[in-house]
Amino acid sequence: MIDDSVIAAVATPAGVGGIATLRVSGEKSIEICDRVFRSINGKKLNDLKGYHAAFGKIYDKEQPVDEAVCLVFRAPHSFTGENVVEITCHGGIFVIQKVLRVVLENGAVPAQPGEFSKRAFLNGKMDLSGAEGIMSIISSQGEQGLNASLNLLEGSLSRKIDSVAQSLIDICAHISAWVDYPDEEIEELDENNILDTLSSAHNELKELTDKFDSGMAVTTGVEAAIIGKPNAGKSTLMNLLTGFERSIVTDVKGTTRDVVEETVNIDGCILRLSDTAGIRDTDDTVEKLGVERSREKIKRSAIVLAVFDSGDELTDEDRTLIDLCKEKPVIPILNKSDKETKIDRDYIESTLGRCIEMSAKNGTGLDELRDRVTTLLGTKNFDSNAAMLANERQRQCCLNALSSIEDAVNTLKSGFTLDAAGICIDDAVSALLELTGKRASQAVVDKVFSNFCVGK
Amino acid sequence: MKYFAKKYDIAVIGAGHAGIEAGLAAARLGCETAVFTINLDWVGNMPCNPSIGGTSKGHLVREIDALGGEMGKAADANTLQSRILNLGKGPAVHSLRAQIDRRMYAGYMKHALEMQPSLEIRQGEIVSLEKRDDGLWYLATNLEAEYSAECVIIATGTFLGGRIYVGDVSYESGPDGMFPANKLAEELKKIGVPTRRFKTGTPARVNRRSVNESILEKQFGDERIVPFSFDNNSKIENKMHCYVTYTNKETKKVILDNLDRSPLYGGKIDGVGPRYCPSIEDKIVRFHEKERHQIFIEPCGYETEEMYLQGLSSSLPEDVQLEFIHTIPGLENAQVMRTAYAIEYDCVDPTALDASLEFKDFGGLFGAGQFNGSSGYEEAAAQGLVAGINAARKVKGLSPVILERSGSYIGTLIDDLVTKGCSDPYRMMTSRSEYRLLLRQDNADRRLTPLGHEIGLISDERYNKYLHKIELIEAERKRVMKTVIPPSEKLNDVLVSRETSPVVSGVRLSELIKRPQLNYDILTEFDTDRPDLPYEVFEQVEIDIKYEGYIKRQQAQVNEMRRLEVKLLPEDIDYDSILGLRLEAREKLSKIKPKNIGQASRISGVSPADISVLLIYLEKEERNDK
């Protein structure tokens, strides 16, 4: 139903290796592979049992392409839960691309990113957080991130959420027994015990949401804004971090009109950097738009690099800027440290914390900046083996559960009856089951549609 | 020789709690109805506990009443003692229970059936049942009278293929020494109704004169009695009381020493017993660490000395029963009048039924009560009412009434039965409902009376009375929201003594009522303009205000669930053709034929992943149609 199409994609990383594997999945995957593969002993793949392999050659019509081993998986005992053939042949981009092309010419379609995991999820082979873990491997950019994603796939998030959910379900069960059997001398629930359980559930979930930004920083990367008044050296800093001349660097104030974006990897932590137009009251409509965009950008960013020209006096523009970003994780940078210092450093530090002295032009202070970034985002001592939330959907579920738990605690503390607290706890459990996909809801399915581009 | 006796619109087999409601509802909706019973002296018999209501069961009775059923009125008219259970645990779980005079109750119900226009009650065992080419069902009694009906409601309780077990002794029997319905059991198998064996049990009864009442803890009824029926006009009084006692180490030892003589533990009974209503030997085996179990000694009637030992259900041999009963304080010299027994009977796999309680594969055939795999008088009556209503609607060519899960315990009960099925006798519990705070016993009339009126079982007079009550509630709610109580030393003394914060300026009455530490009664002297209204009106206003936030929250849960309920699954859907569904899910979905995604999601064996597959299938179909 989901799709009767057969999908194919190269499963091993691009590049030159000893061998490469093409994965083909779908009800008719074995038939399609039989059209392009001829085994040494003449046996059809279709006659093989699951987990059996055959050696032979891949043919493009009558033209042999390469020697190959075909491994057959029979539904539902495969990664996707469908029939799957894995064709392993000699490495090298040309060969494997050619094999892929032959398979596509014989009826398969190219797999979309994450489509194998989508099918695995839809066929009940993995829960939603597992599928999302795979999605995040696909888009994972850093090495630490790959680890954390693998970890999610192995279910450490599911396990953690399940154990929190179970502790809450236990409370509900006890409440139920206590009200359903008034004649059975069921021990009255001690409110303090319930509060203890709620508070430890709260702590565990809080830890997950607190670590969310660090997790994002090592997997898909987080937004980082470089802000500063015109010509403070933002573009130079960006170029220093990216190693490319991406922004237009001139001495004319306000030359960076658009937000320029670039991804950089700082000690395993991925920043999606953007250089913004200087913040300045201006009548120039083009630039005004740029200023508005900068404000927006600060709001969206997980971290802000605030650049000041240490050779200038602190201006009103600088103060506006300090005001704008003081609520954010921010690193104040005193640029142009090679010049004589005129800026009011104490003022900046009283609001934004310790400054870094830098010269973006010649690269001094870069190590300190790297250190501050990883510390501030919590990626410095990031434990890639701990459970973590992989995306905004999971974070939202966690936040919902947290707020329901808080409501339950307030309900009990204000002297309400257990039945009212129970309703809040039920809500928390639902949110957690929704997180792991163990409770089907329209929200989960909407997410499936948007994340996995299901349908036509 | 067989003769044709009469043609009815609807025939009900059985006059227990299900059969009574089914028969009355069908007749009240204008159908010519017959109710057949094996023994006319025990219409509405209570072969087990002499009480009605209890946790969640009390809710069922009030819902039955709000829809126009009879059980609540009958209970009110024959109450020996009344209590609300779970007071102090919150309004969502308050449950009304009353001790009932069982002989009086049976007499009341027999008379109600006798007095009902369009209804005939007839003693006779139904021995055959078949649907003929004319589309009518034909049923015959053991005295060879044949009847026809458009719809037949099976409400056979524990009579169908009934077999009693007491230790090593077993014999074919219905409850309380009545005949079993053996031929009908065979007949149903013959036409292909999927039956299976369940069992249930009942404790011993003792003579009050042999009970040492002086040493026992007494349990009295409530001072302010809440009737079951919203339509009750007479005063109900506590006439009798119960006693509480406990089993002890000695009891436990006697039972454990003789466990091998239990037909259950000896493997003689195939039937599956109720997990939620276990025998004393079950309780002792399963909760081994528990040193004592609570036993209630309850009167069976005003004009009998017979007393019921709640909590001592057993199928151990008679001599063992006597021995363990005599270990219990107060029962040392108890004279047992009736021995405890287990009874095994045929019932149907309820997933063969639609939520209307009509068989999916047998048009015009309905099931209700214990026959559907439930346990308990209240569960039976609730189903009887729904089966009666829907059989009548079928005769009249109307669509069936399906009660929502989010609107009533009755809806929850039926949805559970026909969707999830049951592997042991199904007992209602408050935890079966996801929406306890909405489905309270105190608001059953607000939830269901309009529907009862629309169906035609609630008279215009009663409906107008109900509308008046709703108006009073609304007016009082408005008044309470508007009324401002000035600060005073006296008020603050009361607030502080109730451990809630004092006020410095005028405060709305509603704000005070919202505080969990306060209620209407406490605030009486400060609420000088309070109108003279019935207690029920104040109660509704207080709960509405106090629990407002939680009620909204639960309503949001209902709305979320509804999003799945409105996604209808086409009747002709071929689950085998939907790739991605797991095999188990395909089988279950094909068998149960859920009406919508919400119902499908509650089928055990259908996983969230299967539901995603179904949702995506529907989505694709919809896009294809466009």
Report on this structure:
- The complex is a heterodimer of chains A (about 450) and B (about 625).
- Chain A has about 450 residues and is an alpha/beta fold.
- Chain A has three domains: about 5-125, Probable tRNA modification gtpase trme, domain 1 (Gyrase A, domain 2, 2-Layer Sandwich); about 150-210 and about 390-450, tRNA modification GTPase MnmE domain 2 (Four Helix Bundle (Hemerythrin (Met), subunit A)), CATH 1.20.120.430; about 220-375, Rossmann fold (3-Layer(aba) Sandwich), CATH 3.40.50.300.
- Chain A contains 16 helices and 13 strands.
- In chain A, helix 6 (about 155-180) runs antiparallel to helix 7 (about 190-210), helix 6 packs antiparallel against helix 15 (about 420-435) and helix 7 packs antiparallel against helix 14.
- The longest helix of chain A is centred in the middle third of the chain and has 25 residues, at about 155-180.
- By secondary structure, chain B is an alpha+beta fold.
- Chain B contains 20 helices and 22 strands.
- In chain B, strand 8 (about 135-140) and strand 9 form a beta hairpin.
- Chain B is globular and about 85 Å long.
- Classes of the chains: A alpha/beta (about 450), B alpha+beta (about 625).
- Chains A and B meet through helix 6, helix 15 and helix 16 of A and helix 17 and helix 20 of B.
Quick recap:
The complex is a heterodimer of chains A (456) and B (626). With 456 residues, chain A is of the alpha/beta class. Chain A is 46% helix and 17% strand.
Question: How far from one another are the termini of chain A?
Answer: 12 Å
What is the CATH-assigned architecture of the domain at 205-343 in chain B? Answer: Beta Barrel
Distance between the amino and carboxyl termini of chain B: 64 Å
Name the average pLDDT of chain A. Answer: 78
Descriptors for this entry?
heterodimer; A: 456 residues; alpha/beta; Gyrase A, domain 2; Four Helix Bundle (Hemerythrin (Met), subunit A); Rossmann fold; 3 domains; seven-stranded mixed β-sheet; six-stranded mixed β-sheet; 16 helices; 17% strand; flat; disordered C terminus; B: 626 residues; alpha+beta; Elongation Factor Tu (Ef-tu), domain 3; Arc Repressor Mutant, subunit A; DNA polymerase, domain 1; six-stranded antiparallel β-sheet; 22 strands; globular
